[in-house]
User: What shape does this take?
Amino acid sequence: MRPSALRNRRAPADIPLGMLYPLFFAAVYLSHITLLRLPYFWDEAGYYIPAAWDFLRTGSLIPQTTLTNAHPPLPSILLASWWQLSGYVISGTRTLIVMVTAAALLAVFRMTRSLLDTPAAIATVVLTATYPIWFAQSTLAHADIFAAAFTLWGLALYFDPQGENQILASGLFSFAALSKETAIVTPLALACFEAFLLFRTRTNSTQRRAHALWVVSLLSPLIPLVAWYAYHRHMTGFIFGNPEYLRYNATANLDPHRIALSLWHRILHLFTHMNMYVPVACAVSALFIPVLSEPTPRLLRRTLAAIAVVLTANWIAFSVLGGALLTRYLLPMYPLVLLLCVAAWQRHLRRWWLLAALSTAAFLAGIWINPPYAFAPEDNLTYRDMVVLHQQAISVIEHRFPHATVLTAWPASAELTRPELGYTRHPVKVAPIQNFSLDQIQQAAQDPGAYDAALLFSTKWEPLAGRLNLGRANQQSDTKYFDFHHDLSPTEAAALLHGEIVWQARRKGEWAAVLHFPRAVSASLSRTR
Assistant: This one.
């Protein structure tokens, strides 16, 4: 598929993958050393850890202590199996995720080296590892990192020009789909691409056979996924989880206006979000520079077409599926975008590594510096600020109001009631509400006897009032379609709920507060006879 001269020129520089994995693991582990003991965050606490905890204790693939949403069970199986070795400790869970992340980066290295060369592979791995979204997800036990690792290894085998890896790639894509059901999008997109090549190739029987094998192999991951849904239907009566979950993530998303807005948001997520615009802008600018005269590694048109098909399929699929436009759904797509950028730099610039260094610096800045628009805390280390604030707030509740019923919203409602998540030693009763918007606080104020304290917190990060906010123009549509809302400040909520703020703190735009509600108790005494 590529000139043999280029392959021979690169061969001496090839590094055995087995030697690289310990290096990748150590780099990820040490760069995340301060995050390894953090309590579980967001969807970890809400679904993935409880589901794995249930499997560990009961052996049931269907969660018992949290609502089942029909996510495939492979993450639960892997987590529970690891806990048998490490014990149920948070740092052990984080270590497993670091191992998975290192394996995913090794797949990025292998894929890029086979398509370009070793320097390009090193640059792509460094860029991927430092990209804020990838960096933040590298220790979080979401299904997306498992799916990303299997998907990237499947892609690495698919793009390997020197071997026919249909069976192994099929198995890896199957594991990806059993980690997160939406991972099926990538092999199905490639199956359609191979079917197109099969239809177009009419004379070469060897090529037709290869395309046909790839079509079958890339469609085969549907089999275990369908089997899982059949099992889930048999056990619960629902194919795709409870009806509310299905409505939120699929059937309620089919409004044409919402889909158009989602397509726009997803384009921004792929090519501009968290400083991704730096390497993309550099790559687009490089295309206007003449191609270097000396031979340089380049991507074949067929490879470019396959990558474009995968990116387009995921762009469209995740603009329709999923109630929340979380960027981690696109996790395996970011290395592909960065690979394309590196390929463009190499093709047009001798000192392309300067652009790689500039992009890496931009990504490192994005890990700690927030963009001028609202975003999910898990897109960079803002999630750490949120976790630390929740730890502090729950510690205040534990010590000062241990028997209180606490008004709060998810995920704090799970953090308070499930000690295994790492926030509290004993379960605390909660009175849950959806969020801390005006209407929810007003509803809570109508039943003041239902709670004795409140834990309020910022449910997302957004720029402070008066600061630059690039997302302000979209807030009306985001409120209608993507559950955007403004959280009341602790002072405003305390006034409406007639409570007093006993603790509050802020960290880089994130905030949390504990309210207490002294209740007057009336009692009458009567003389006994």
Observations:
- Residues 18-369 form one domain.
- The chain has two domains: 18-369, 379-516.
- Residues 264 and 319 are 9 Å apart (CA to CA).
- Strands lie at 406-409, 430-433, 453-457, 500-507, 510-516.
